[in-house]
Structure formats: C-alpha cells, structure tokens
Amino acid sequence: MSVGRLGLGLAALGRPAYINVGRAEGLPARRGVEDLRKATWSVLDAAYAAGVRWVDAARSYGRSEEFLGGWLAERGHEDVTVSSKWGYAYVGGWRMDAEVHEVKEHSLRRFREQYAETRRFLRPDVYQVHSLTTDSPLFGDGALQAALAEVAADGVRVGFSTSGPRQGETVRKALELEVEGRRLFSTVQSTWNVLEPSVGEALREAHENGVHVLVKEALANGRLAVQAPGSVQRAADGQGVGTDAVALASVLRQPWADTVLIGAVSTGQLRSNLAALDVVLEEGALPSLAVPPERYWEQRAALPWT
Asked: Which pLDDT value is given to residue 208?
C-alpha cells in the first residue's frame, strides 16, 4: 500500500480533551497550549518524513489550525494538502472538565465567520462542512450553498464530513446538491471501520462519480487499537503488528478510500499506524464485525472526553 493514501487528522492533538480511547498514553504529561503545539509539530514532522502529505484539521479542533499553520510556515512545506472544516465551534476553553466542548451550527453566519478564522492560519485546499446530517439546515439554505459555491469557484475544493447512523443517506443527498448546474461538493469524509461499515456503498458510488473520499475514525476512536475484537487481535498477532495496523489495513483494502486519516498523537502511535502499509489481509481474513449503526453511534456518544 502507498503511504500517499494516508493523511494525518489533528482532532486528538489540537485540544486538551477528546474522546479517543488510549489517547492519554501518547500525550505529554502536561496539556498546556505549548505542550500540545510541540506534540503536534513532532507528529507532523514524523508523518512528513514518512511520506504523509495530507493533514486534516477543523475549527472545533481547539488550536489545530494554528498549530498546523505555524508548522507549515516554519518548515516551508508546499506539497502538503490541507483540509479543514467549519460548522462546530470549540467552546471548551482549553479545559479538561468543560461541560460542553463544541457547539454545532450550519448557518451562513457561522460559515463566513469560521472561513475568515481559518484563513488567519491556513490556505486550505479543501474546506468541509463538519458533520453534515440529513436534517442539516444547509439543505434548505440557498444563500449558504451559494457562498460555498463561491469558495469553490476560487479554487478551494468544497466538501463535507458525515456522522451518525444515516451516513449513507447523507452522502447521497449532499452529492445531489447543485448551484447553477454544478455539483456543489467534490469531497466527502465519513466514518468507516470494521465495526461501522454501513456507509461503504455510498462512498463507493461517490468515488466512482469523481468525488474524493476521505475515511475518518478508522480505529473507532481508538477502540480498535486498545479494545479490539479477538479476530482482529489474532490477525495482528499473525503479522506481528498492532491491532491498529490491521484495522487501518482493512480500510486501505477498500478501493474507494482515496485518503485514510490516522489520528496518532505521538510518534510511537504513528509508527504503529504506518505498519498498516505492510499488512496483507486476504479476502475473508476478518469475519464480519459490523454492529447496528444505531448501537455504534450510541456507544461513540457515550465515550468520555479525557
């Protein structure tokens, strides 16, 4: 497998608290702004050295855009594809114990505000609606759609990410949107892993129609790295890698997965993730591990912010 299909996601590095299981073990003992900036730059350096050339951030990922923008300016790398997202605002105040960490709003006001904020730090190649669902007000907001189309006309690829048990329906509905006869979205980022593969067919259709497909949460927010089912553990033991590598390899086997995001928070986690490139999974190597989407997303929602 080519390392060029991997991207680095900054959801777990740009803020002190997040829901990834096993994240704490890879982070510095202190989680001040400068501590996480240093950790982010360390992982970015290691990922770049390994050949990773896609980095994904979001307005709600704390200071991820600031960290990434500073790193790009300092290192001078011009061959990195940068994607970011708008729609959620980070309101956690850099606290571990915040009652609310992020607030969602898909409105024209929020888009304009957050796009300006993003541009303070980055010149994104891809700008995505964060966690689009079928009931988002975006679908009925012509002014918002027109504003997104203006960004696309300026050369920024406009996309969306999805979440929830109806991801497939959201993907198909969003890719039907047109502004002045042109499809609005050219990228999609969805959760797909061996526990929650329900969006797979919709992503295959998107890929075949020229849409760039990114896969997020390939490790089910860390659960497949530290709480993997027995069959994943046996496959990992058989190839001398971690269960994270097997879980990532299962995504890389999907021909429609153009970019697979990894969420490592340390160079050690990154090395373990990159081992997926050498994993060989034969057809049927893993039995079906899918759980009902509703149950999967209920379990995800119950994960604590730590």
From this structure: 98
Q: At what angle do helices 64-75 and 108-121 cross, to 10 degrees?
A: 30
Q: Which two tokens stand for residue 146?
A: 């027109």
**Crossing angle of helices 108-121 and 142-153, rounded to 10°:** 30
Q: How confident is the model at residue 83 (pLDDT cuts 50, 70, 90)?
A: very high
Token couple for 226: 């530290």
Supply φ then ψ for residue 284, to 5 degrees: 80, 10
Helix (H) or strand (E) holding 168: helix 167-174
Question: Packing angle between helix 33-50 and helix 267-274, nearest 10 degrees?
Answer: 30
**Chain centroid to CA 171: how far?**
15
Q: Tell how far CA 54 is from the center of its chain.
A: 11
Strand segments, DSSP code E, in 14-150 are: 54-56, 81-86, 88-90, 102-104, 126-132
pLDDT at 1: 76
CA distance 48 to 71: 11
Which tokens hold the place of 14? 């740009």
Cβ-proximal residues to 194 (8 Å cutoff; 6+ apart), any chain? 224, 229, 232, 247, 250, 286, 289, 290
Q: How far is C-alpha 304 from the chain's CA centre? A: 19
Percent of the chain at pLDDT exceeding 70: 100
